[in-house]
Structures are given as C-alpha cells and as structure tokens.
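Researcher: Go.
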Amino acid sequence: MPMAELSEILGELKLENVRTYIQSGNIVFQSRGKIDGGFSEKISTSIESTKGFRPETLVLSLDELIAAIDNNPFPISNGKILNCFFLKESSNEPDMKSLEALKQDTEQFKLAGMVFYLFTPNGFAGSKLARRVEKVLGVPVTARNWNTVNKLHLMALEKV
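Model: Structure:
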C-alpha cells in the first residue's frame, strides 16, 4: 500500500501532521483527542474498508517509544543489528526456554514489558530467533531496527 494512501486514510481519522518513514507502514502523527487502546483497530478497519484487506496495526505513544529507547539493554555501534519487537499486547507466559534454544551463540535478547530486544551481531536476516519471536511469544509483534526506532523518535519530536 502506498504511504500516500495510508496518510490519506489517517487524515480521514482526524489525525494531524501525518508523516511516513520508508515504505513499511512507519507513521508519525498527532491527535487532538486521546488515543485509546482500540485506536489501532480503528486504523485497521479504515484500511480494510478502503483497500479491502485488514492489516495488523500497532500504535505507540511518544512516551512508549521513549521508554523503549531508554530501556535498551544493549550497546549500539550498528543500528541494524539491534531490533525492537513491539508487542501488541502482553505475552502472559513467554516461553523463554524456546527463545533461548532458538538463539545463536552470538545473539542476545531481553523481553522488557511490551518490547522484545534482539541483538544480532551476525545479522538479523539469518536469525532463527528473529523469524520465530512472534510465534514463541504468542502475540502479534512488529519489529524495527534501532536506526528506524531512532528516526521515528526524531520525527515525533519534530511535531511536539
């Protein structure tokens, strides 16, 4: 879906200063009203009624994004090797043993609230753990590398 079309759909939901970042659904916006927990479903419904498919969506507040950045447990020298998996809901009983069994020797991870941090010094693409996080945690997730997380943070601050 072209980001211009997604921006238009969000504008129809009375969101303001809608800006997109790369062609993967990364969007920063403002709202005059309170955004509640069901707002991501409202976005999914709007996309479905307009485009004929229903994507999984996740909305983070600026405070949640800042907390994810502040709580990062790993050193950063290359933003492509650290990924934040944002959980749509809490993983009640995450199977940590399965996560450990899937990780490579060089990989490290930490589940901190609604963010699963995955440090992959040998690269994200070859990580079995990266491919299985959602299934093992049992909740929908969306992953963004550290560079993207920080770019979205900067974009959001520009609108504050």
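Model: The beta strands are 16-21, 26-30, 82-87, 108-112, 115-119, 141-145.
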